[in-house]
Design goal:
about 400 residues; alpha+beta
Length: about 400
């Protein structure tokens, strides 16, 4: 590239905003001056940069949201179950933390941390965090919506943002990518099938000596995790007078005289049970640990049920529908680009034909002209030959 009296070469260099992205710049004197990608809108380089910014990054974010949402919701439900060893479930998947990219021009050494606290609220967008000396501003880059905060930490679209070290200086900027690399970095966390928390961690029962007609259901573990530390502690529900009952057990506070309502929810220690029917005074119902968890797949059914639950996009999409939206986006864009490419090919063909009609060479016409000129040349040669013969005849007659 020649600018004035200086010759410079083009070079690829890391972006100041996203060092993992390469951008184009002028290289001269051992230095590289980066070009704004918006200034490169044509040609192969412009097309590649536009594809990365408009389609590739969005597709990666969308796929990452599905992967991260699946992993987080599956882990949360697995944590509410119990494995074959009687231990509460652990994370089934290892989930990556959001990427936080520090702008290379930042003047402080502060670092920002980000963590996903609500997978259902995740979007397929990146975020820009800036500080002006008084307030932090978080911009959702997909729609440029900006929200100002006086302090951190703050939770934005299911992502908790905090200053992990140092003091942020005025003018500092950070790029937060919650889902960009999630699909690539997700991995299994357990390899032993016995650690799958397929069973419920609690078991309910009615005492054999009960004289009434009361029944207790299997109960459910409440979400979200982590579970209550007293989840598996034994709890007794005893009907002491007509229409009321007492509760005893670690973590319950041992309340007494609770009014009974058939089928009503009874919640303690992170679980909810329902007793229905007509219990009598002295009837006892117990909630205890599910020893071993054998012959119990209740939590496995809940894990399988996640497939059809709307756990993503603020409770509006299932795993499959969110993935389908991404595939549809890619497919529609591919079709649009294909149609645009065909239209451009047609324009090029029409322009070429118009140019050739004025300044192009018609081989058939030129071949015909060549034959005509050749015949004219041969005729002229015959005329010269005849003139020479006549002249020579006249000379011979004069002798």
């Amino acid at each position: 590239m020649v600018v004035g009296n200086k010759a410079m070469s083009l070079a690829a260099a890391p972006s100041l905003e996203e060092p993992q992205h390469m951008v184009v710049g002028y290289s001269f004197g051992g230095n590289t001056m980066l070009l704004n990608s918006s200034n490169l809108q044509r040609g192969r380089i412009g097309g590649l940069l536009a594809f990365r910014a408009s389609e590739l990054d969005a597709a990666q974010n969308s796929l990452g949201r599905v992967a991260l949402g699946l992993a987080k919701t599956f882990n949360d439900q697995n944590a509410l179950g119990q494995d074959l060893r009687g231990v509460l479930g652990v994370d089934f998947f290892r989930t990556p933390v959001p990427d936080v990219v520090v702008k290379t021009t930042n003047t402080s050494g502060a670092t920002i941390s980000a963590s996903v606290t609500n997978a259902g609220a995740l979007t397929a967008s990146d975020y820009r965090l800036t500080y002006d000396g008084s307030n932090y501003s978080v911009t959702r880059l997909s729609d440029n919506t900006t929200t100002a905060y006086a302090t951190l930490p703050q939770t934005v679209d299911g992502v908790d943002i905090a200053v992990s070290s140092g003091v942020v200086a005025s003018g500092d900027s950070f790029l937060i990518q919650p889902t960009r690399n999630a699909a690539r970095a997700i991995a299994m966390n357990i390899s032993d099938p016995a650690k799958i928390a397929a069973a419920a961690p609690m078991r309910t029962a009615a005492a054999n000596a009960n004289t009434g007609f009361g029944a207790i259901d299997a109960g459910v573990v409440n979400t979200p995790p982590p579970p209550d530390p007293n989840l598996q502690s034994p709890v007794s529900i005893t009907f002491t007078t007509s229409g009321t009952f007492d509760v005893s057990g670690a973590g319950t506070g041992n309340p007494t005289g609770i009014v009974y309502a058939s089928g009503g929810s009874i919640t303690f220690n992170g679980w909810t049970v329902r007793i229905s029917g007509s219990p009598q005074v002295g009837d006892v119902f117990t909630i205890s640990a599910n020893s071993g968890g054998q012959s119990d797949g209740s939590n496995a059914l809940l894990l399988a049920g996640l497939q059809t639950q709307k756990t993503l996009a603020a409770g509006t999409a299932t795993y499959q529908s969110a993935y389908s939206q991404m595939v549809s986006m890619v497919g529609n864009k591919t079709y649009q680009i294909d149609v645009a490419s065909q239209a451009q090919d047609t324009l090029v063909s029409q322009a070429t034909q118009a140019q050739q009609s004025r300044s192009g060479v018609n081989l058939d016409e030129e071949a015909a002209n060549l034959l005509r000129y050749q015949q004219a040349y041969q005729a002229a040669g015959r005329m010269i030959q005849m003139s020479s013969t006549l002249f020579q005849t006249l000379l011979d007659l004069g002798r």
